[in-house]
Please model this.
Amino acid sequence: MLQRTLKQTISATGVGLHSGERVKLTLHPAAPDTGIVFRRTDLPEPVEVAVQPSLVNDTRLSSTLVTTTGVRVGTIEHLMSAFAGLGIDNVVVDVTAAEIPIMDGSAAPFIFLLQTAGIEEQARPKKFIRVKKPVEVVEGDKWVKLLPHEGFSVELSIEFNHPAFNRAPQKVHIDFASRSYIDEISRARTFGFMHEVEYMRQHGLGRGGNLNNAIVIDDEYVLNPEGLRFPDEFVRHKILDAIGDLYIVGHPLIAAFSGHKSGHALNNKLLRVLLDTPDAWEFVSFSQPDEVPSSFHRLPEVL
Model:
C-alpha cells in the first residue's frame, strides 16, 4: 500500500455553487508526504493552503478552509471525496477563485478527471490512521462517531419529513471491503429545497446552483427532469460528503464511521476530537498487501 499521486497535470473549469463565479481547477502531481494542498492562484501572490481539520472554519452548506489571514478555499468536500475514493495522497490543487467548481454536484466528474490524468504509485508507504477507541460527537438529536474496525465502513441516516424523502430509504450502510465507491457513491448529487434558495442568496450562497448541478426539491417533488440517479441518492450524497470531510484529516481511516443527521460541522468536530484524543488513534503503514486489514476499502488499481 504505497502513496499515490497523479501521472500528469490536468485542468477543468466550472462554476462555484455558492459564489456563481467561473473557476479553473488544475491538479498537479506532488512529491511523497506532500498531502493535499490547495493553491489560490488568483491572488496577487499565490497562497498555499494545506488541508487540515483546524482550517475548516466555515461549514455553512459546505466545508471551507479559512487561513488566519482570511484566505478561503470553499466547497472542497466533493473533490476530497474523490481523492479518498481513488486513494490519492499527494496533489497540489490550483484554483482561480475562493471555491472549488461544483461540476454536476457529485464527485463523478472529479473521478473522471483523476482517472484521465492517471494515478501513479510512489516509493513511500501510505500512512493510515487506525482508530483504537470509540470517539463520538453529539449535538441534540444529531450525532457522529468513529469506532475501531478492521477496514472502512460508513453507516448514515438522514431525517426529512418531506414527501420526496419519505418515498426513499433514509439510511444506508456500506462496507467498502466489498462495495465500490465509484459505482455506489461517487455519482450521488448534492440537493436543496426551493424554499431555501432565497435565504441562501441573501447570505451570498447558492448563486451558482441549478438543475444541472444539484437535485432541487419543491414542496413535494424532485424538480430535475431526469429524476434521481439512485432511489436513496439523498443519503448516498451525505455519505459522499462525509467521506470527503473525513479525508480532511489527511490520511485514510481504518475505522467504522456512523452518524445520524450529520453535516460538515459535525464531521469536522469529530476529526478534531479524534486528534485531541491521542490514545484513540495511531498512524500505521503496511509493507505487504496481505498485512492490510482484510476488509479494508479496495482501492481501484493504478491506471
User: Anything to note?
Assistant: DSSP finds seven helices and 19 strands in the chain.
